[in-house]
Design goal:
Layout (H helix, E strand, L loop, with lengths): L7 H12 L1 E7 L4 E4 L1 H6 L11 H6 L3 H15 L4 E9 L5 E12 L5 E9 L1 H22 L1 H15 L3 H23 L5 E3 H12 L5 E5 L3 E3 H21 L8 E8 L6 E9 L12 H12 L4 E7 L2 E9 H4 L3
Parallel strand pairs: 7-9
Antiparallel strand pairs: 1-2, 1-5, 3-4, 4-5, 6-8, 9-10, 10-12, 11-12
Helix pairs in contact: 5-10, 7-8, 8-9, 9-10
Length: 327
């Protein structure tokens, strides 16, 4: 129960602020929308003239969600009593938010209709949902490619092993590393992970130790980032063994992870393939390329870039260090 010393309005505002719930009221006939300070800050609307109309709001809804959201708003104008929608919203600062809007129509004693409701930000939930979807698809993708990967690892291990016992040891170590990764991926506890350990784990599972020149800065990262770095690195290795520089003994890869801890510092993952024998550049993109593009974006707004050049794949991705590092 609330402390009676706290005024009702203050208590209500504190509760909304803690839950990050913004309130609004729309005069339907007059087409004027007013919002509270919480919603104003959430939407980056501090410099927007007030009140504004519904068309102005819809203009900021993501283009793929505009038609669906506009239909629900039109239904309110056509005398529907309630409103509920989830949609992406592009703020004036070009931030993309996932919002849920919910409201109910009230009629004044003068017959004017008002839609009164709230918006709350579900962006973190959507990011985790998208990441989980990509992880599940990537795991299915990796299972489909398992025979090709194992075959490649077997050939590589056979060429390196001097005896049957050495071959057995190599595979046992990689299977053990794979088990460690499964624990990393599916452990539901919030943890702290070393970026160097994640890269070492991916390389030990997928192979290519001899041909990958690794220079990685140390950074304590969260579990979501650790999963992404592992899956992206393992996909890069698998792709290179099938199509790129790791397909031949002459090929080499430079794997770099550079970290800047300055204000607005950037952490960069760089994968450069070098194989003078490689001439054929893949003409189509499979799900593996989707992983390399989509998963980093879904993980704290990574910015991936990739290009097939003579010699193999040139892949780069950047994140804001503050977003992936453990405080």
């Amino acid at each position: 129960m609330k402390d009676t010393i706290i005024p009702e309005e203050v208590w209500h505002n504190l509760a909304n602020q803690a839950a990050e719930v913004g309130r609004w009221i729309w005069n339907i006939e007059g087409d004027l929308i007013n919002q509270d300070p919480i919603l104003e800050e959430m939407l980056d609307f501090k410099d927007v003239p007030k009140p504004f109309n519904i068309d102005f709001f819809i203009q900021h809804v993501h283009e793929e969600d505009q038609e669906r959201t506009a239909k629900k708003i039109q239904a309110v104008m056509d005398n529907t009593d309630t409103f509920h929608a989830d949609f992406r919203f592009i703020t004036p600062q070009n931030r993309e938010l996932w919002l849920i809007g919910s409201g109910k129509v009230y009629q004044s004693e003068h017959g004017l209709r008002y839609l009164i409701g709230v918006n709350y930000d579900i962006t973190p939930l959507k990011i985790k949902e998208k990441h989980a979807h990509l992880v599940s698809r990537e795991m299915a993708h990796k299972l489909r490619n398992q025979m090709a990967v194992v075959s490649g690892l077997f050939r590589m291990s056979c060429s390196e092993a001097e005896s049957l016992s050495q071959l057995e040891q190599t595979f046992s170590e990689r299977l053990q590393a794979l088990t460690q990764f499964n624990e990393l991926l599916f452990d539901d506890k919030e943890g702290t992970f070393s970026s160097q350990d994640v890269f070492d784990l991916a390389i030990s599972v997928c192979g290519g130790e001899v041909q990958i020149n690794k220079q990685t800065d140390q950074l304590k990262i969260n579990r979501l980032t650790a999963q992404t770095l592992y899956l992206v690195t393992s996909e890069l290795i698998t792709n290179s063994m099938k199509y790129g520089a790791l397909r031949s003994k002459q090929g080499e890869v430079e794997l770099t992870f550079e970290v800047s801890h300055n204000k607005d510092g950037i952490s960069s993952l760089i994968w450069l393939e070098r194989d003078s024998q490689l001439k054929d550049i893949p003409q189509s993109e499979g799900f593996g390329m989707t992983v390399l593009k989509s998963m980093p974006r879904a993980t704290f707004g990574g910015k991936p870039q990739l290009d097939w050049v003579v010699g193999g794949l040139d892949y780069r991705c950047q994140w804001l260090t503050d977003r992936i590092a453990v405080k």
